[in-house]
Design a protein that fits this description.
2 domains; Alpha-Beta Plaits; single chain
Length: 225
């Protein structure tokens, strides 16, 4: 005959065990996570406009969705496994820095889909994914300020800066000197400009005496209003 402590322990553990967890339900959850993870993969590939596209990061988004779903399935199936998994995950340290906030959004999206599909709420996962996609697309097409360009100029005389600024004002709506360096008789300027007639500006600057090189560089930095 079982003692009161053994009966209580057995009933307590059985109350946290999911008897309905079978092979079919597990495969359905993992398949739903894999499909939604692949959807996140495609969305990230279409939305991102980086010069250096991280293929490995995009692959990890799909894997994180499926892995998170498996973790949730394991946690809700047995209390002992859930406690052991929490202890194991508590010692994991992720030291990879996320530099782009959009990458962080996709990473959180993948984890959320894994949690939701692991809990069996497939409709919520699909609805959330569709809404996030629509929101991202709408925000992408909204008119926002265009990032300024960087004008890199190398000239031989310090006095040439006055002529350079006069010529820039003819073509740009606004300009701001970001860097001014003078070394070994040459002047290096980096000027932030907003200009529409890019070719005309570069051509006009290249005709100024004592200028050895002119470069107009676009960048994807933050837009300052």
């Amino acid at each position: 005959m079982l003692s009161f402590t053994e009966i209580f322990k057995k009933s307590f553990l059985e109350s946290f065990t999911n008897p309905g967890m079978d092979f079919n339900s597990v495969m359905v959850s993992l398949l739903a996570a894999a499909i939604l993870g692949f959807y996140i993969y495609l969305t990230y590939r279409l939305v991102t406009r980086k010069t250096f596209y991280s293929r490995t990061f995009n692959h990890s988004l799909w894997a994180i969705t499926v892995i998170t779903s498996g973790i949730i399935l394991a946690i809700q199936s047995n209390l002992v496994i859930s406690l052991g998994m929490v202890g194991a995950l508590s010692i994991v340290r992720f030291r990879t820095a996320i530099k782009d906030p959009m990458d962080l959004i996709f990473l959180f999206w993948a984890i959320s889909n894994g949690i939701i599909t692991g809990a069996g709420m497939y409709t919520l996962a699909v609805a959330m994914s569709v809404m996030i996609t629509i929101g991202i697309m709408i925000l992408e097409i909204l008119p926002v300020g265009k990032a300024p360009m960087l004008l890199v100029i190398n000239c031989d005389k310090m006095e040439t800066e006055t002529d350079i600024l006069k010529e820039i004002k003819k073509f740009s709506r606004s300009n701001r000197i970001k860097t001014r360096a003078f070394s070994q008789g040459t002047l290096d300027l980096i000027i932030e400009v907003r200009v529409k007639k890019q070719q005309e500006l570069v051509r006009a600057l290249s005709e100024i005496p004592d200028i050895s090189s002119v470069s107009l560089v676009a960048h994807d930095g933050e837009v300052v209003f």
